[in-house]
Amino acid sequence: MGQNQSAPGGPGGADKKKDGQDKKKKWEPPAPPPRVGKKQKKRDAASSLGAKLPTVTPSARCRLRLLKLERVKDYLLMEHEFVQNQERLKPQDERNEEDRSKVDDLRGSPLSVGSLEEIIDENHAIVSSAVGPEYYVSILSFVDKSQLEPGCSVLLHNKVCPKLVRELFRVADEMAPSIVFIDEIDAIGTKRYDSHSGGEREIQRTMLELLNQMDGFDAMSEVKVIMATNRIETLDPALIRPGRIDRKIEFPLPDAKTKRRIFGIHTSDMCPPPQADFRKAKEKVLYKKKEGVPEGLYM
């Protein structure tokens, strides 16, 4: 009597069918299409249309590209004409004021010196001559004032000063038109006497080099030499003769009107009270300084 074999439709087969049914994916309804606005539809349509357009060839010589550049040129010409019309319709006084302000910016601010006025600033000057136009030039200096401490002195080394004079005129000739301004020329331009020391001989060599350099410039040169001194009677006649120094301008002691103007220049930045009387202040100062007052010192 043997054991009964399990039929294929027994309990084991039923379990396998249930597992297969569970593994099957359940049916789900499809998702609704997203709602698209009119602008998005137009944008999508334009992008799809642009993708369908063919490429324009050639890229170097293209008629469409030429027409585009011509249209840009027309716009630029129209803008230029509009700007010109606006400038033409601007009042004459306003245009003159703009031109004057530009010239003032280039020429600098006026420097008042008593009864004289020159357009100049700290670094530039106006150079004019009788035979040529005016030039706006820069002022060069071999001495940096910020590097010199108070009380410094300049030593006269052997053959150094004549070399500096040659270098000065060489730079002035290269930077022409230019001005060579020598203040206190009586320090090296005094009358020549028999020298008894090395310093005096160095001064004479410096003046001789200065005379040689000044002989190399004629009246038509674009390098102008200006000298200043308070003791013109001590200068060597060879230095101030015609041909080297052609014009001599004297600045005499100021009169009462010029003194008043100088006083106004120095007090223009001050804010005195309305009741301030400068005449009474002057009389008070003169009353305290009656003895030993040089003539013409006060107004």
How would you explain this protein's 3D organization?
- It is a single chain.
- A two-stranded antiparallel sheet has the order 1-2.
- Helices cover 42% and strands 9% of the residues.
- It has helices at residues 11-23, 38-52, 63-89, 92-107, 160-174, 198-215, 256-266, 278-288; strands at residues 110-113, 116-119, 124-127, 135-138, 178-183, 223-228.
- The radius of gyration is 47 Å and the shape is elongated.
- With 299 residues, it is mainly alpha-helical.
- Among the domains are: 63-107; 112-144 and 151-234, no CATH class; 256-288, no CATH class.
- It holds the Pfam family Prot_ATP_ID_OB_C.
- Keywords: ATP-binding, Nucleotide-binding, Proteasome.
- Residues 160-253 form the ATPase AAA-type core domain.
- Residues 1-52, 87-109 are annotated as: Disordered.
- InterPro entries: 26S_Proteasome_ATPase, ATPase_AAA_core, ATPase_AAA_CS, P-loop_NTPase, Prot_ATP_ID_OB_2nd.
